[in-house]
Amino acid sequence: MARLLVTGGAGFIGSNFVHHVINHTDHHVTVLDKLTYAGNRASLVGLPQSRLTFIEGDVADSLSTDDLVADADAVVHFAAESHNDNSLNDPSPFLQTNIVGSFALLEAARRHRTRFHHVSTDEVYGDLALEDPMRFTESTPYNPSSPYSSTKAASDLLVRAWVRSFGVAATISNCSNNYGPYQHVEKFIPRQITNVLRGIRPKLYGEGRNVRDWIHADDHSAAVLMILEKGRLGDTYLIGADGEKDNKSVVELILHLMGQPADAYDHVKDRVGHDLRYAIDSSKLRDELGWQPIYRDFESGLAATIDWYRNHEDWWSPSKHATEALYAQYGQ
Ligand code: NAD
Ligand code: TDX
Fold first, then answer.
1. pLDDT digits (tens, 9 = 90+) for 231-271
2. Which numbered atom of ligand 2 lies nearest the CA of 82?
3. What's 37's domain CATH number?
4. How is the beta sheet containing 74-77 ordered, strand by strand?
5. Does residue 229 belong to any structural domain of this protein?
6. Ligand 1: nearest atom to the Cα of 101
7. Is residue 327 flagged as an active site residue?
8. Model's pTM, two decimal places?
């Protein structure tokens, strides 16, 4: 049995990963999470106490994280400030957590020779034109657009440097847009679902032509676990499930699945510097490690996600009002 330290395990993808690990392995999980506005202990409720330890703390606090990294067989690093819109309004916490926090963890992994996996995003590669047949691969040059994606690019580069300079046993994964349960209501899909549940019209940035490559969070979790167990040290793996959709189509599908008219949404102010399109070629992960997504049908995955939000209003309701108040402040 291995001992995993999962940073950001009370967030969206981190909590899905903890559920996945507990359900599919016999590893023990220690979650280290600062419980920012995006962290929620309720996302870990129901998991067996014997398999899970929760520590509230900051990844950038190197004194308190050192022992946790020393005690772990592997660190899976999800903790981050993750929302592009927030990074445009106040970049500072993004630099602190995504760069200084990753640096502190890498130093601890170096000291204790702990296996390290860094969870990152396809946004480090910038964006693609709508009509471009190309997709991102592991050799696409870095070209991030937002404060968020530039801090994720910076932390990827720190990991690469710590591998090469200090021999840290690390891997990196860059994944596309996730959807599924436990995602904060600030993000596109849960925002629109919970808007409809509250009788508020969904909000589409600009014309809604921007394309995102959707993957279910549980498929992301399975890929991260596989890279942790079988990935080549020092390597980067792209994770994606061939799920390209433009935002307008996603809003229309949510409205359709929730029994609303197709045009019952508002166009609002576009995001500054809004990336046009992300698309992942995950051949390396599929060919070398044998990973395959299980959620291949976006419509049924989305319908299950809508059901989850419908049945878990107690989970999302406490964040909804403040989130919409913040969007209203920025005209979105
Ligand atoms: P999230 O915002 O839902 O969760 C982030 C978690 O990290 C929260 O629980 C928060 O409390 C915690 N956290 C924040 N700062 C911390 C700190 N200083 N110390 C300890 N914990 C801290 O984010 P998410 O969407 O689950 O993303 C998780 C990771 O996956 C991020 O690294 C993100 O860049 C990456 N990623 C996300 C997506 C996506 O679609 N959401 C896609 C690809 C990669
Ligand atoms: O209300 C909205 N209306 C809208 O049209 C919101 C919140 C978003 N959008 C658009 C912006 C994007 O084109 O929807 C798309 C998705 O937006 P987000 O959910 O904010 O995700 P994105 O900016 O694409 O980034 C996400 O995927 C990559 C995650 O938040 C990142 O953490 C991850 O790295």
1. 999 999 999 999 999 999 999 999 999 999 999 999 999 99
2. 32
3. 3.40.50.720
4. 52-56, 28-33, 3-7, 74-77, 115-121, 170-175, 236-239
5. yes
6. 18
7. no
8. 0.99
